[in-house]
Amino acid sequence: MSAPIIDEASRIAKTDSRWEKATVKTNGEGTDGSAQKTGCLYLVSVGPGRSEYICPQAKEAISRSDVIASYELYLTWVKPLLDKQKLITTPLTQERERAQISIDAARQGKKVSLLSSGDIGVYAMASLVFELMQEDDQFQVEVIPGITAATACASIAGAPLSHDFATLSLSDLLCPMNWIEERARAVGKADLCLALYNVQSEKRQEGVYKIIDILLKAGKNPQTLCAVVKNAYRPAQESYITTLSELRQKKFDMFTSIIVGNRFTRRKRNWIYTPRGYGDWQEAGPEPPQADAVWVFSGTSDGNEAALKIKASGRKVVVSVASDYGAGINKQTMTDAAVPVICGSLGADKRKELLKQSSCKAVVDATHPYAQKISKQLSDICAELNIPYLRLEREASRLPAHAVIAADFAEAATRAMELGERIFLSTGSKELPTFLSAPSAANKQWFLRILPDPDLLERAVALGIPRSNICAMQGPFSQAFNEALWRDWQIDCVVTKDSGSKGGLSEKIKATENLALPLIVVARPPAASTRNTHKSVPQLIEALNHLNL
Q1: Residue 126 C-alpha from the chain's centroid
Q2: Omega before 466 within 30 of 0, i.e. cis
Q3: 248-291 pLDDT tens trace
Q4: Which run of H or of E encompasses 218?
Q5: Which of 156, 227, 340, 411, CA to CA, is 20 to 30 A from 275?
Q6: Radius of gyration (Cα) for the chain, nearest Å?
């Protein structure tokens, strides 16, 4: 524990003994049989950690008190209010002793302020005092409210708790972990906004990630906006916006709280907010599925083309995309063609439910060649529901002799650091942690090209890429553009995926040849399914014709 913050050390009693070692009978009499004196116990909330956020009622109670009982840190926030009060502190883990000392002093007729950060009635000392009090205690009790960690963090993030929300402490010291998990499932199922307390400690490293997985499995959208706030309204305050799925890649501590939004939570500039409601909300969940349609899961321009050709052939079609950005790119085109677009990473259970409810005729998997997980998921769902599965995947490119082929992203990171100092990544943001966490990565300069999606940009910055090293634009890009960008940035190594000619790989190859730059290509992963794979949209339409769909 740090040294006392009050110079008069004699005024601070650090003890786990009762108030002045006196005992008080539970029948309201003192040890000498006299009637118990009438004191007053103020249960004082001192907020997040700055004196200006302590309410006048709390300041008045502290000023008129004879005794202040507190964890020592909280005294630093009320130092100007301290005069001749007797100060009693106990360590952070001795809350019960601190509460009992306060009760004993009030029984002796003293005016006592028991301090707690945040709101003393929320995950704090007030309930413990009421638990320890006797029914026939004579002293007065006054609970003085304050700013909670949830509302403090929410104010830094914007206005994410503007509608129904829950709070959940992840500490299992006072509550079994299985209870915490069950409550998280209920929150996820109800899609409530959520404030997470006691997120991570040295001994509890994995609990928060388990809760995130539970929320996702219970139905929370992986793209749900979240705010991470550390040291709210205290020195070294930090905060950033991310998504629920990306929380799994973060590290936290006991000074951090997390606000999880719901499916309506939106972002504006550097804030997030949840609409108030009252009948004005635009439902952000999946639209009612169109019956008897071919579902196109689109992650490429080929998928969009396929959806329009399927529609033109006289069939019903539904397009599913994983992100708001993906929906925005083709929304007008699909709207003009009367093709419904479902947006969001739905999860396996929700996808299966929608396909089954809509009597889906066939699934066209036009997701990115490197999106193995979703392709396997779609293939498995179709096999289970007996729905025809068709894979649309553009052909792999013929790579030049100067290209270095890496088996995966980890190998690509290793080879890139062997070949370059200023490394350009044209691999998207998803695999960025693989490159930045590789040994010696901190000694290199990394440059990145990503889609102009604010969430992707903030994620890249949060992972350590300077904004000046990020090109956020929609491709594909010409050879001339690539050459100009790499020349200006003095790039000496390029890493990319084999996204085919439509993904701009040919232009990257020619640019690296002209600039004599090393080119590392991450090989395509093995196909999640080899069933009914087609290399072009005409082949796909022909396959649908053969199926009489």
Answers
A1: 31
A2: no
A3: 888 898 889 999 999 889 998 889 999 886 554 555 444 456 78
A4: helix 207-218
A5: 340
A6: 30
pLDDT of residue 512: 96
Question: What is the per-residue DSSP string for 254-288?
Answer: TTEEEEE--TT-EEETTEEE----TT-----SPPP
Give me the amino acid identity at 205. Answer: Q
pLDDT tens-digit series, residues 83-97: 889 999 988 788 999
- Which pLDDT does position 11 carry in this prediction? 46
Mean pLDDT, residues 226-232 taken together: 94
Sheet holding 271-273, edge to edge: 158-159, 271-273, 266-268
DSSP states along 37-60: B--EEEEEE-BTS-GGGS-HHHHH
Distance of alpha carbon 544 from its chain centroid, rounded? 41
94, 4 Cβ separation under 8 angstroms: no
Contact 523, 412 (CB under 8 A): no
Tokens of 277: 């409601």
| Strands 389-392 and 403-406, sheet pairing | unpaired
> Could you report the per-residue pLDDT of 183-212, keeping only the tens digit for each?
999 999 999 999 999 998 888 888 899 999
By CB neighbour count within 10 A (0-12 exposed, 13-18 middle, 19+ buried), where does 147 fall?
buried
Q: How far apart are CA 169 and CA 200, in angstroms?
A: 10
At 275 the pLDDT is 87
- Other beta carbons within 10 angstroms of residue 332's beta carbon come to 9
470 conformational bin, left if phi > 0, alpha if psi -120 to 50, beta if neither: beta
Strand blocks (E) in 185-328: 193-197, 225-230, 238-243, 256-260, 266-268, 271-273, 294-298, 317-321
Helix/strand/coil for 403: strand
Q: What is the pLDDT of residue 529?
A: 61
